[in-house]
Write a structure and sequence with these properties.
Helix content: 40-55%
Number of strands: 7
Oligomer: single chain
CATH superfamily: Homing endonucleases
Order of helices and strands: HEEEHEEHEEHHHH
CATH class: Alpha Beta
Number of domains: 1
Radius of gyration: 19 Å
Structural class: alpha+beta
CATH architecture: Roll
Largest sheet: 5 strands, antiparallel
Length: 195
């Protein structure tokens, strides 16, 4: 007899993580991935939810965090993949990043490795692809640095040049490469650094 329809038990570590996320963060989605290395959680949250509509005061605050301590870039996980849009904020205050993930409703917070006992533990909030694009639609009017120009480029061209099925025509590939070059060539100028 096969055990069809029987739910497999999950590990105690994953169950405890799920409880803590529900209590502490108000997390209501499923845990998509949790990694444990020497008893410590490496990935805190990764959700597959749509980006929330931000309250009136939040877009400017999150834009300020991104201008000051964040990044808007295109990156790839594997050498043979296309680059994808990533928004990230690095900080030593976990509660600050927890505020962002709770308001946005998507993304993940990871703990960065420390190489010395003198280094303060730090964390990174990141959100990728179409979720990042949805967040940019809400915060881009409030960005003040060169990241505003990157946001505008992403909003204008990223979705048009990124098919959901991942299949690219020859024209789309060349247009995509041109977009990536244009996007990554937007860097901080002296004027940006002076402000």
């Amino acid at each position: 007899m096969k055990d069809e329809g029987i739910v497999q038990a999950i590990s105690k570590e994953v169950e405890q993580l799920s409880r803590r996320l529900h209590q502490k963060c108000g997390f209501s989605g499923e845990i998509q991935r949790a990694r444990f290395s020497s008893g410590r959680i490496r990935f805190i949250v990764e959700s597959k939810r749509a980006v929330n509509r931000l309250p009136v005061e939040c877009p400017a605050y999150i834009a300020g965090l991104i201008d000051g301590e964040g990044t808007i870039t295109l990156t790839r996980l594997h050498a043979n993949e296309n680059r994808r849009l990533v928004i990230s904020i690095a900080n030593t205050e976990f509660q600050l990043l927890e505020f962002v993930i709770n308001r946005v409703g998507a993304g993940k917070i990871t703990r960065k490795r420390t190489n010395s006992d003198r280094h303060t533990p730090s964390y990174c909030y990141s959100i990728t692809s179409r979720q990042a694009l949805a967040l940019l639609r809400q915060i881009s009017p409030f960005l003040q640095s060169y990241k505003r120009r990157r946001a505008d480029l992403a909003l204008e061209r990223y979705e048009l040049l990124t098919p959901r099925n991942g299949k690219y025509s020859v024209d789309r590939i060349s247009n995509r490469r041109r977009f990536e070059q244009d996007f990554l060539s937007v860097k901080a100028t002296r004027r940006d650094k002076a402000n």
